[in-house]
């Protein structure tokens, strides 16, 4: 028997999407060492080009689903979630091309760290090996902590420290959960863990329960699930608007995929106590986030609690566990991605270097008072995003909510569907609060100039694209749903 491992059995092409961005990050660092003071536009375009190349390789992949000692899994879910991660990243990186110059966007390290962060998220979603998932999680998290701190503001440092502290705790929970399941089954592969636990009828129950609770705590941090949500508003507030918007989308889709792979195998085995735990987390996360959002004084903090509520809403798909629900999860997040991109880009556009309206907050509701009289187009576009996030027809997020609620009803989760509808109604209030300030109150500024200091052509184009997608979502909901369902079925979910 040969002691050598053939390259073909390793399926090296399965690692190519991640390798492209690793090479891109190292290439940017080397260029910066060779040529100093390059323009941020150069780094931005270079980063986007590497992401687009990565996306092309990913879409064109037709090799085996397993690779690199069977630790890499390139199934339908992995391809779909990586596409969402890469498309979101390609839209958020150009937000660095704002009218005003910020120190972090002049540094090559920012773009290199951004690409390393994407690689971490890609590894998270393209493996069912707990060790690889953990490495991906930490790679992405450590890069993100640094990116937040690079904003070079006192609140940014505070946000990075809070995120790092909570992230370290979550990493400990993940490692402890992995240790427990390895001790029980002798494997860190999710499929093997499932098979062994089924054979042993999930005994000893206390150990399985402990491992599951630790895993829920670890993934709950990434998904901002109650009670692991407390970091979210403070970190969003201290981060720049582009990074806050990015955190509301990409880390969560990575967390959803890991949760889907891990928890749905337990739910499919009729583990009733896990269903009860997830049911409680979904309801509490949606409801508490919505109620807390009602009393926020800052729009960015309101959007932070909004993202928590949306995460709770989408977590219901993992609880339901059907193909329709899993397809609904991806449909919802794709539509939510473009709407939240637009909302946070608008906050970035109207950002001012000084807190003119409030001593603490950059985006208090009062800042937007009477905006329709000073900047009618800006106020209208912001209003579109608020209507969409509230789930009002015919805007984008409405179709995602409708599909998930119908999945709940079709699977017999009637009470859950009612709670989802009630929470959607509660959410309308705090989104409409901003509309009241923009359209029904008198302006607090004498000129629109204070709202335009950060606007640039690039930002306007991104917001325009997000607006078009949000308004015309009804035209492509069905094609997206067909594609998503196909990939979900291919993965066996």
Sequence of strands across the biggest β-sheet? 1-2
How many angstroms separate the termini? 38 Å
The topology string of helices and strands comes to: HHHEEHHHHHHHHHHHHHHHHHH
Poorly predicted runs are: none
Main β-sheet, in a few words? 2 strands, antiparallel
Using the CA coordinates, give the radius of gyration: 22 Å
Task: Classify the beta-strand content into a percent band.
Answer: under 5%
Class by alpha and beta content: mainly alpha
- Report the principal-axis shape: globular
- Portion of residues in helices? over 70%
What is the average of the pLDDT values? 88
Which assembly state applies to the chains in this document? single chain
Total strands: the figure is 2
- Our count of helices gives 21
Topology (SSEs and partners):
Layout: H1 7-10, H2 16-34, H3 40-59, E1 66-67, E2 72-73, H4 76-92, H5 108-125, H6 130-149, H7 154-185, H8 190-199, H9 205-223, H10 231-238, H11 241-247, H12 250-267, H13 272-293, H14 299-320, H15 323-349, H16 371-374, H17 376-389, H18 396-410, H19 414-440, H20 457-471, H21 473-490
Antiparallel strand pairs: 1-2
Helix pairs in contact: 2-3, 2-5, 3-4, 3-5, 4-5, 4-12, 4-15, 4-21, 5-6, 5-12, 6-7, 7-8, 7-9, 7-10, 9-12, 10-14, 11-15, 12-14, 13-14, 13-19, 14-15, 14-18, 14-19, 15-17, 15-18, 15-20, 15-21, 17-19, 17-20, 18-19
